[in-house]
From TrEMBL:
Residues 1-20 form the signal peptide. It comes from Tigriopus californicus. It holds the Pfam family CUB_animal. Keywords: Signal. It comes from the Eukaryota. Residues 208-364 form the CUB domain. This is CUB domain-containing protein. InterPro entries: CUB_metazoa (IPR058698). The keyword Signal applies.
C-alpha cells in the first residue's frame, strides 16, 4: 500500500497597506498563496444621504439591511438598518428608528451591544417633537421619551437636532421608550426619526463618564437646553445632566457666551422676577447651571451676595455673568469642560420668559491665548 504524503504549508499572514476601508491580506495555504480582501465595517454615507454601515452585499442581506450605494471602493454596500415598527431591538450600529406617533401607545426599543467593547449608545434626534413645545409649567405630562439609564432624564417638547448619550450596561438590557399620551390635541400624526449609534470604549470620540451630551472636533460650537426652540420654548423640569466639550490638543480653557437678549440665558431665579444676572448658592436654588471655577474673562473678580470671590460656580437669572445684578452677558471662562444643568420639579410661579433655558456659544481657548482678550461672536 502506498501512502501519499501531504505537505502542509505553515499559515502565513501578510497584511498590506490599507487603502481607505480596504485591507488586503495574502494567506499561504496548502493550495498556494491566496489573496483576500477585507474592509472595516465602519460608518458610510449612503446615496440617500443617510448614515449606514459598510458590509458586503451578502452580509447586508443576511442582517436584513437595505443597500443604499457602495463603499470600500465598490467592494461593499452602504447598509442601512431601520426599525419602523412601534418597538423593536436595535442590534446594529447606526440604526434608524422611525415612525409616526400612535395615540396612547408606548413604543419600547431595546439596545443590544453589537460588540463587547461598546460603552455608550448615542441617540441623535433627527426629527422628534413630543407633546406641546410649551409643556405646562415645564412638566413633561403627555408625550415623552424615557430611558432605562437612571442618570438620563425624561425629555419632551421639541428635541430635533439634539442628541443624548446613554451608558451601556454590560450584562443587562438597555432601552428607551417613546410614550405617547391620549391627548386629543396631540392625536395628529407626528413623524419621528432617531439615529442610534454604538460608541466603543476608550476612543477619542468616547464621552467622559456622566456626560449626557458631548461635543468634539470643533474649536467652537453651540449648546442649548432641550426644547429651547430659539428662545420660544420652555426648559424642562426635573433635569440634572452634564454637557461636556472635549478638551482638544493645545487647549487650556473654554469660554461661554449667551446669545443676545434674555432669550439667550433665562433660568428662573429663586425669588421675584429679577431681570438681572444672579449667581451663588443663595440666589440660585431651584433652576441653575453649574460652571465650575468660572469667571468673566474680562474681569479678574466676581460678585455674589455682596462678596467678591475670584470664581463662582452657580448661575441663574436672565444673564450669564459672574457679576450679580448686571443686565449684560459676559464671556464666562473656566478650565473645566463640563456644564451641569439642574432644574427642580416646578416652575408654577415663574413667567414664561424666565423658563426659556439657554443657548450658549462656546469657544476653546488655546494655552497661548490664556490671559489675552477673547472675542466670541454668537
Amino acid at each position: 500500500m502506498v501512502f501519499a504524503r501531504f505537505c502542509f504549508v505553515p499559515f502565513v499572514l501578510i497584511v498590506l497597506p490599507i487603502r481607505g476601508q480596504i485591507v488586503v491580506r495574502e494567506e499561504s495555504s496548502m493550495f498556494g498563496l491566496v489573496t483576500r480582501l477585507f474592509f472595516n465595517n465602519g460608518l458610510c454615507p449612503s446615496q440617500m444621504g443617510r448614515n449606514g454601515t459598510c458590509y458586503t452585499a451578502e452580509e447586508c442581506s443576511e442582517r436584513n439591511g437595505i443597500a443604499e450605494g457602495q463603499c470600500a471602493d465598490g467592494l461593499g454596500v452602504c447598509c442601512i438598518f431601520e426599525i419602523t415598527t412601534c418597538g423593536g431591538n436595535v442590534v446594529e450600529n447606526c440604526t434608524l428608528v422611525s415612525g409616526t406617533r400612535l395615540n396612547g401607545q408606548t413604543c419600547m426599543f431595546t439596545l443590544t451591544q453589537c460588540s463587547s467593547d461598546i460603552c455608550f449608545f448615542r441617540l441623535d434626534f433627527d426629527s422628534l417633537t413630543l407633546g406641546s413645545t410649551l409643556p405646562s409649567n415645564g412638566d413633561c405630562s403627555s408625550d415623552t421619551i424615557s430611558f432605562s439609564a437612571p442618570t438620563v432624564p425624561i425629555l419632551c417638547g421639541s428635541l430635533s437636532g439634539q442628541h443624548i448619550y446613554l451608558p451601556a450596561s454590560p450584562g443587562s438590557v438597555d432601552s428607551f421608550s417613546l410614550n405617547f399620551g391620549l391627548s386629543a390635541v396631540l392625536a395628529l400624526a407626528t413623524a419621528y426619526q432617531i439615529q442610534v449609534r454604538q460608541i466603543p470604549c476608550g476612543r477619542s470620540f468616547t464621552p467622559p463618564l456622566g456626560c449626557n451630551q458631548f461635543f468634539f472636533g470643533e474649536l467652537s460650537g453651540q449648546i442649548q437646553t432641550y426644547n429651547y426652540m430659539m428662545g420660544a420654548g420652555y426648559h424642562l423640569n426635573n433635569q440634572n445632566y452634564d454637557i461636556c466639550v472635549r478638551k482638544e490638543l493645545g487647549i487650556c480653557q473654554i469660554g461661554y457666551l449667551a446669545f443676545p437678549g434674555i432669550q439667550g440665558f433665562a433660568f428662573g431665579p429663586s425669588f421675584g422676577f429679577s431681570m438681572l444676572s444672579l449667581n451663588g448658592d443663595m440666589d440660585c436654588v431651584k433652576d441653575y447651571i453649574l460652571v465650575p471655577n468660572s469667571a468673566n474673562l474680562a474681569t479678574p473678580v466676581c460678585q455674589t451676595n455682596g462678596a467678591f470671590p475670584a470664581t463662582v460656580t452657580k448661575y441663574c437669572g436672565y444673564y450669564l455673568n459672574c457679576m450679580e445684578l448686571e443686565f449684560t452677558n459676559e464671556i464666562i471662562g473656566t478650565t473645566d469642560f463640563r456644564i451641569t444643568v439642574v432644574t427642580d420639579g416646578s416652575d408654577a410661579f415663574f413667567m414664561m420668559g424666565e423658563m426659556t433655558g439657554f443657548q450658549l456659544q462656546y469657544q476653546l481657548i488655546p494655552c497661548s491665548s490664556v490671559g489675552k482678550t477673547i472675542v466670541i461672536l454668537p
